[in-house]
Every structure is written in C-alpha cells, then in structure tokens.
Amino acid sequence: MIRLLPLLLFLWPLRHAVAQVHPALLPKPKQLVWSRESFVLTGPLTISATDPATQVVSDSVAAFIRHVSPAAVVEAPRTAGQATIVLNIDATGILRNRPEGYTLTITRRQLRLTGASATGLFRAYQTLRQLYQPAPARFAGCRITDYPAFPIRGFMHDTGRSFIPFDTLKQHIDRLARYKINVFHWHLTEDLAWRLQSDSLPNLTSPAVTLRDPGYFYTKQQARELVTFCRQRHVLLIPELDMPGHSAAFERATGHTMQSPAGKILVKKLIREACALFDVPYIHLGTDEVAFKDPAFVGEMIAEVRQCGKQVIGWYPGAAMAPDIPRQLWVRNNKPLPPMPVIESRNLYFNHAATQADLIGIFQRNLCDTTEASPTRLGAIGCIWNDRKPADVAQIETLNGFYPLMLALAERAWCGGGRPETEQGVVLTDKAAFQEFENRLLAHKKQYFRGLSFPYVRQQHLHWRLLKPFPNEARLATSFPPENGQLDFPGIEATGATIYLRHTWGPAVVRAYLDAPQPDHTAYAYTYVYSPRKQELDAWIDFHNYGRSEKDASPMAGTWDYKESRIQVNDKVIPPPLREQPGLHPAHTEQPYRNEPYELRPPVKIALNKGWNKLLVKLPVGAFSTKDYRLVKWLFTCVFIRKDPETNHWETAGELIFSPDKTFTQP
Fold it and tell me: Would you state the pLDDT for residue 11?
C-alpha cells in the first residue's frame, strides 16, 4: 500500500478534475450523441438564413464566430445548398408543439441549427456557444435534440426593498439567458420603496417616502428598454406591483391605504399606467401577506388588468382568484396542489439558502410536485428577498449564491425529473448523477464566470460521519464522549461542504441528515483528512447560515455562534474569527451583515500534518427558534480552499482526501 500511495495521490485530483474531453453543456440536453469530428473555424464560412425569423440568430452566430476566431470569414453562400452553416425553422416531427425545442448537428463539413420557432433557434444558439473549443477554434461534433421539461424557468429580484442598478439587472438577464432561463420576475414595489417612475403619482419615488436607497428608482424609459432587452434574449419580463399588502410606500406617498375608496382609484390609475408601459402579457399583482378589508379589491384590480388586454399572476397563498389565473407558490404545506396553473417558488427563496447544501437540494428536487410540465404545472422561479439590508449589490449575489443556485435551477427546470424534497432534500443520494452535474457546473464557473461572484466549490468527495445526537438537557456546553476520542457510536454517512442536520424548514418540508431531529441535543461530526504534505490551508468554517431576510444576531466575541458549536483539528480547538460587530442584536433589518457569514470574511487558517488529520465538529442545539436566530439552522460548513489565480475564485483544495474510515478508495 505504501508503494501505491504516490500513484493514488496523483490520480485523486484527476478523478475529480473539471477538465473534460467534450465541452460541458448546461442545462444537459435531452438527447446528445458526440462524434469524433469538429467544425473548425478556418477558411471562408458561408451561412444560410433564408427565413426572416432566423436572421437575428444568424447574425448572432456570425458575430460569435468572428469574436472567437477573428481570422474566420463569414459570408452568404452563392446558393443555399453550398452553405456550411445552416439555420432554419421547422416545427414538425419531434419539435412539434415544443416551441423552445431545437436540433443541432455539427459535422466536419457543416453546422446545422433547427428551431421549432425563433425562440427554439435562439436556444440552439446558446448551446452552440457552449460547444466552442479553442486551439484550434472549433465547435465539437455532435447531434443534439433538445427541449424543456417546463415552460417557465425564471428568477426574481426584489428591487422594491433593495435597489439593483439597471446595468446589473441586464447583466443577470443576459448571462442567465445563456442557460435557457426565460423569465425575469421584477418585484418593483414594497413597504420600503416604490421603484417605478409614475406620471400619475410622481411622489411615489420621492426620496422623502423611500426608506432604503432613497433617490434610486427605475425610469419609464428604462422599463421599456428592459422589456426590449429581455425580448431580444427570448426572456419574458413579469413586472409585479404588489397589492394591497407590502404597500406602505404607497401610503406614505398618497396618504391613503390601497383598500380605501380613494386609494383604489389611485391603484387603478397605476395599473393602467403599468399596462401601457410594459409591452408584456402579464402583470403580477402579488396579494400575499395582507388582511383583506375590502373583499372587492382584488377582483376590481384583476378586472382593470384584463380591460387593458393583459393577464394576471398572483401569489399563493394570497387572495382568492379565478381558477384560470396562474399562481406562484411560496409556502409548502404538504397538501395536494390545487387544480389551477401554478409556478413553483416553494423553498426557492435563495435568501434562506445555504449555497453549498441547498444547491444539492435544488438539483435533486422536483418542481410543482411533478417531473414535467402539464397545463397546470408550469415551472419555477427562484427568488431573492433581501429584507436585511445588503451592504452592496455584491452581497446580494454572494450571500444568496445567485449564480450557482440559478444554474442548478436552470438544469432542473429544463431537464425535469427529481423527487420530492421530503425524500431526498439536501441529503446527497444519487452521487453519480450529482458528480456529473457538479463537474459541468464547475467547468462553467471556471470558463464563463471569471470576475463574477460564484461562491460554490467542489464537494462531491467531502465525506463525513455524523454521530447519533446526545440529549443535552438545554445545557449546550455539556461535553460528551466523542470529545474524549470515543467515536464508536451509531453514525450516519454524509457528503458535502455544508451539512444540514435539520433543514431550516424541518423534516416535514425538506429532508436533512437527521430523520427526526430533536431540540436540546448535541451531535458530533468527524472525518479524517489526508494531506500529502505538511501545510497551512485556508478553510471556510461556519455553524449558521445568516438569513438575508432575518435579524440574525452577530455572535459574541470569542464564539462561533449562539449554540456553543466548535471544531477541532488534531484535537486542537480552532478559534473563531474576530467579530466586527460582536453581540449585535439588530432592532431592525437596516443593519447589514459585515463579517458574520463565512462568505464575507477571510478564510480560517488551518495547519495540517502530512498524512491523516482528525477533524471533529461539535454541534449542540437548543430550541429551533430563539431570540438570537428566529430560524435556527442546525448545520455546519467546513471545506479547505485556495484561490485560483486565473479566475480569482475560491476552489476546493483538490489534493486532500476526506474519509471517516481513513481509506483512499472513495465511494
């Protein structure tokens, strides 16, 4: 075994390497057959797009080729039959009734894109971009037939609470459109602020009535521009004017509640104004989290939208609406879904997500309680609600794991499948499927997200053992035998950089590693880490995920959290970080996080010996809701990392082996 050790350590990083023979495609196509050919971008290339509906994509293909291969000459063919790049629209055969479907065939001599519609052709172009390989410039040879499992695959930004610069919104829309995300849900109004310019009520966006980011709102010209920007990328923009709740900004500006007689007149004006402004089919009216004092209010506002020739979307739970109105789900109560069109957002509020673990949950789950769309099961929208004021826009992207979680949702919503969250949840069960997805995800992180926030690292090989919890009688500091080296207790195998013992919403909603977690218990997790040499490494370590819609307290100086959690490496206790605002219990949500979450502070320095190193994590818990954390998250994060000098991203230290049994052969 000793002689084999150097070879095993050499092969270990290769086994988990991101590099692939073929380009990584995300989302994964329905049908994909690779060939050994490539379409090389040399010499004169001729492109045929005789149908006017193909011209925009044809121009995009030509521009992309000129960008990646400046020496390539792209021109029109003398005859269509001579074209080396062919684009066309054909909604027959397998593409029938699949408007976003496409086929893509790449051989040595020809590149052929066929879409069921102009939208399908645009989706084919996005896949083509991912098939590009440099040195020499070429597209990988293959045959693809592809179409989505769900027609709605989107994301929502709450710009009512926290203003996001217009150019950042465009960047998010543009980048996610490359992953076939086709809906941008724009939440424009909130208690804190009304972000959409109004001619009928100009005072709505006044700094005097805006409690966060005063003076920042979106002009009507920007709204029109964003509709066009989305349409060019085959993305549907859904504007939301939330009513009659979440409307304190309206009340401050007008002196009326929305449900008052005077308020209703003004709201109807705003609806007509928004319908005239947004050249889109839907207006989202919200209707969640409010007491209805006027039972006619919602019906009147729906009628107003319909009189403008548009359709309504509302939250569910929310106001009662006609059964043909699509509803966006936001609370999981484990009851059968009602017989109406629904859009999944349950447990897709990224402001509650721990990126490393909840990405596994998104990848493994189904949507709308099914594996593919039906007339009443439409798809999913991932949402970010920053009730807690972010220090800047970068915090919105980083703390909410925006890009990695959205790419996981893009995969699931396009491919379909998955199982109920109560069956798999954040417990990694199909390791082979996840490994294949994670390899593709990290390939895209490295290639397409340089310089952008992407707070996710490889975790498929990080293996732990969780010991059955000990009752602690509400004394969180109590010590138990594992701290004295006794580890021979019943255990559960776990995999990941962040491990949930109990998910935020409990086992009735999302399965975590403990099937029946109880308050007032202390659990332990341990593993052994093999290092090929003595070294000091950076590590992400944490014991709480700080909710972006919560008033979570900052730990006291000298502590990791309010649960007496701690970690030992080779029997040495690792001290917690210095706190910038120790002991802070914010009275409101306008106090940003500073260095409470691990993503916002320098990594912890950990010394590893050559050979096996013992990691022991102590995980006490009291109640699952306390004065310090409304939502106690029984979890821990531990992963060794280093900075990639090419991308400036943190990446897992790939030479280490995590094994609670000290074995080199990993499952």
Answer: 41
